[in-house]
Amino acid sequence: MIIINKYTDIKPLGDRVLVKIKTAEEKTDGGILVPTTAQTKPQGGEVVATGEGKTVEKNKVDISVKIGTQIVYSKYAGTELEFNGSKHLILKDDDIVGIFETDDAKELKPLNDRVLIKVAKAEEKTVGGLLLTKVTKDKPSIGTVIAVGPGPLDEEGNRKPLSLAPGSIVMYSNYTGIDFKGKDGYNYLALRVSDVMAVLS
């Protein structure tokens, strides 16, 4: 982590944004204190500064978020730094997975080529009727598309709409994307459309 104490301002350039990282949860839902080593690395925060965007061919492409926006970003994105006593991250606009307009996962607004999927519930029993424990349940790789991003940029800087639509039932690659727990008790997953393998009907 880079520590920047003697400067008073950071201005991201091009298609980069500066994000103030939200702190990791220090307690479980049940109120148990979580040691620092067991805390999950946060993947979200508030945009505090943006670059001017980028130019593709002759088209100017603005940053997809504004200052003050709550975002979620890719796990290994950007460069972490400490500034004004808080952890920040400088990352590219394309590393932003989506925008949180509320605190409910199912309301995530995906950006670029990302989609938000409501994960199907894992099977509780085998075909033969045996109950599965939490450990032996297969991680589901099927879900329903809830929201889609505006699409990636083409060579000329125009958005290319995604081929998926909300309501589509899809199969996706295991162990991909970012998991969220919705207030409705369902699991949600934000991932790139390229990680979707098939549409089911």
Describe this structure in words.
0% of the residues lie in helices and 38% in strands. With 201 residues, the chain is mostly beta strands. It has 2 domains: 10-100, 10 Kd Chaperonin, Protein Cpn10, Chain O (Roll); 112-201, 10 Kd Chaperonin, Protein Cpn10, Chain O. Keywords: Chaperone. Belongs to the GroES chaperonin family.
The major sheet is characterized as: 8 strands, mixed
The side-by-side strand order for the widest beta sheet comes to 1-7-8-2-3-6-9-10
**DSSP E strands, number:** 16
Approximate helicity band: under 10%
Rg over CA atoms, rounded to whole Å, is: 19 Å
Succession of helices and strands: EEEEEEEEEEEEEEEE
CATH topology of the largest domain: 10 Kd Chaperonin, Protein Cpn10, Chain O
Low-confidence segments? 30-41
CATH superfamily of the largest domain: GroES chaperonin
Shape: globular
Structural classification: mainly beta
Termini Cα gap:
47 Å
What number is the mean pLDDT?
Answer: 83
Number of helices: 0
GO molecular function, one term: protein folding chaperone
Organism: Castanea mollissima
Keywords: Chaperone
Family: Belongs to the GroES chaperonin family.
Write the layout of secondary structure elements.
Layout (H helix, E strand, L loop, with lengths): L1 E3 L11 E6 L22 E7 L3 E3 L2 E3 L8 E4 L5 E5 L2 E7 L3 E5 L8 E2 L3 E6 L22 E7 L20 E4 L5 E4 L5 E6 L3 E5 L1
Parallel strand pairs: 1-7
Antiparallel strand pairs: 2-3, 2-8, 3-6, 4-5, 6-9, 7-8, 9-10, 11-12, 11-15, 12-13, 13-16, 14-15
